[in-house]
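not sure who needs this but someone in the group chat was asking about Flotillin-like from Aegilops tauschii subsp. strangulata so here u go. i didnt clean anything up, its just raw.
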Amino acid sequence: MASFHVADASEYLAITGWGIDDVKLAKKAWVFVGQQCKKLCISPVNYEFEVHAMSAEKLPFILPAVFTIGPKISAIGDEAADKEELQAQLLLYAKLIAPLHHNTSHVHDLVKGVIEGETRVLAAELTMEEIFKGTKTFKEKVFDRVQLELKQFGLFIYNANVKQLVDVPGHEYFSYLGQKTQQDAANQAKVDVAEARMKGEVGAKEREGLTRQNAAKVDAETKVLSVRQMGQGQKEELAMKKAGWDKQAKVAEVEAAKAVAIREAELQMEVEIKNAMRQTEKLKAEQLSKATVQYDTQVQDSNALLHSRQKAAEAALFEQMRTAEARKAQADAKFFEQKMAEDAKLYAKQKEAESVALVGKAKTEYVASMLQALGGNYHALRDYLMIDGGMYTEMARINAGAVNGMQPKISIWSNCGGDAGNAGGEAAAVSALQQVAGVYKMLPPLLSTVHEQTGMSPPAWMCTLPKDNAAN
């Protein structure tokens, strides 16, 4: 439902989503469902560039520079207005720059574009001599202009280091200028050496004469001053003691005044510290109470939602259990009913088998007794059983039903002179020729019957069947 996130010392939490209009920045926070939390690093980063620019005389040069840039965060002791402005700058950084940290080249190109643009505009307004001699002023102007442009991205320049100007290949302005400076310095050094040597020799002679004059003068004055100093020594000693006493009195007064001022400052600082601590504790208490109320409210809502979902799940589970129990009861009843039906069928089958066994046993005993009564005559027993069982009557009925409705067709074939020959043949011995003739006599009725039953006719080379009228 929720998770507690804490950022490192050099990180901030950027939270968006449900309940947040824009972006919320915090060092620690609860992240709920429907919210997204990402960590953004606020550590400054060094960007090193070589800016190609051109002076007012259209002389190109290279300006190596190293900038330390990052978001500016509020510090302890900042005013409330400053903190709000810094918070707004940090919010801009979280929106515009922090999402691009995974692509460092994009941020590098952005910063480089701002620095190159402002450096070129400023260099075009100055001559090469002004840029070279006023490097500090040039650096400050570049710093101010770049900072003004980077502020819209929530970035702050912590440090800017502009190195010495470098010539562009093909334009050796600084090389020639350095050579000229070296030659001027060498010539001036030679002149200075010669003048120094001359001044040294003349000065040595002058010093020697002046030394002798001064030595004599000093000896005379020393004798006069020694007398005067003896009298003034006592006065000076008294004056020095008086000055020491005045100094001690003034130092004591100053120390007393400073001690009072220091104590007042310490008391004022303690008062301000107490006020700041009171304000801090008040803000902490307000924030803690708000966070506690919000947390309790969200916990209660979450508990209520969880309770409702648990009740719904329990109701659904209870309904499913009731349904499963009902289905189980139905299945048990159906199984019991089927079991009772199967038991009844089994019992009926068992009784039927027992009755069949008893009937068979009775029939076996009956047949055995009848066979014994008939003296072991199996054929007589079979005929008796068939007659007793009505078998012959049933066979007669079936045969009668088989021939019922039949319309037999009888074909009579005769051969001229066949009767006398047959009669004589019956009395005499049948010869082989007569047997063959009998076979031929059988063919016409056989072929006619096949034709009537199947519709097939014999081949023309064998014989030709008569028409139906002629046959009839």
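also The first strand starts at residue 2 and ends at 6. if thats useful
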